[in-house]
């Protein structure tokens, strides 16, 4: 098995054994498979791309084709111990509403996203004067799926406004964990564990 | 293998029943025609029930005795195929109401005369309960999986709701939990075409062999259009003319699409009974799984331990993706493990029978995972 993406590895480590998990935007199902095999998790997935869904089902995972913007509303309240949204928040139409839905269907939620205030992004914009195209955000502004860029501080502010509790936060620079201090400047990626 | 052995191709058995029907009547005895493929393992845990569609039959993976054509799902069923007969024991019964050997309107009633319209009106759930009788007889309690497309999918979902403990995995392809007004409307056109044929004679046409072929052919033509996509028809036929250079300014089949439909209609009458068409379309129209469960589809799956896999096709306008999503939402609400994907294929509703490699991949993976 190939290694999990660093943000997924953090989530996989933190999820409790034997829980029910909904992975929203589950991609090819790598995290779900790891949770199922490593933590006896009852993992369900939602994914927009039919090729990815087919791949997941062929791996024996329970995944439905669906859109986080629309289809989360169809799950009953508290159906899952965790709802997971990894590197998808910034692609949704209304991240605030998706967050509300995550914490409606899940008792807790993991949310990971690329930090748009990382120093490399700032420099790129400051000196280049163009929308940043970096190692982490490699796609030009006109074709990127990231329609709602967000920073660590923006996210903290949204969470505060929504009355959501932060139960844990992890920050990544490359593949390594980095400290919470000055995370808004130094972290390329953030992973938050949230609850109501 | 002797001819009355329970397993093998072209099997027939008459069971005493009685089969209590949703409409209030009773069917007894009950004839079954079915085929099996593969070998039932020692603990009878590898059985897959295949449910066929409206005009399908038990000849899934063997040549059809009337048309001589290969079975209707040889893409999916066979050695090394997704429904792998080296691994699974596959059973496909002809549904009751049909005309390929299971009890239907052409069967003889107690008085030795074909039932005709005296055959009781049946439902999808009646078909399923009949299949359960057959499986009891074959010594199969719990099914590894139940698989079907279109009306077959309706039977699968009805199986999961009626016998949740007997179904480990359910594959529902291009199907619906209820017939829509549009679905019923198309079927009514077909039934009226049959009943308007003077040869129908209230369904009592069996004695002299002259049935309502013209009406049945029209019914098939109308239905066949609903199985294809507009894009598929356009690509296949466009406005091309049939074996001629110019329009004839008459009512021959000038267009290729007319000729094709006429052929589909006529050849259908060689292999299908008009009364069976009436009864089975009625069963489909009556199908509304939510109605059977207090108006809430999710109630149909409460406490279900069955794994579900649903597949729809983007060009299917007969049972569009929204119908599959309706089922998925109910399954999510009841907490059942469910997978769903809308696949892209150009063939309309018929996609489930045709070459869609992703369908094979999904069914293969889903079934294998059920054994883990």
Structural description of this entry:
The complex is a heterodimer of chains A (196) and B (372). Chain A is 32% helix and 26% strand. The termini of chain A are far apart. The mean pLDDT of chain A is 94. Chain A is globular, with a radius of gyration of 16 Å. Chain A has helices at 6-14, 30-39, 50-58, 95-105, 119-128, 152-161, 183-186; strands at residues 20-24, 42-47, 62-65, 80-86, 106-114, 165-173, 176-178, 189-195. By secondary structure, chain B is of the alpha/beta class. In chain B, the strands form three sheets. Chain B has an eight-stranded mixed β-sheet with strand order 1-4-8-5-9-10-11-12, with helices on both faces. A two-stranded antiparallel ribbon of chain B has the order 2-3. In chain B, strands 6-7 form a two-stranded parallel sheet. In chain B, helix 1 (124-138) crosses helix 2 and helix 3 runs antiparallel to helix 4. The longest helix of chain B has 16 residues, at 181-196. Chain B starts with 10 loop residues before the first strand and ends with a helix. The A-B interface holds A 42, 44, 50-51, 53-54, 56-66, 74-76, 79 and B 307, 309, 328-329, 332-333, 335, 337-344, 358, 361-362, 364-366, 368-369, 372.
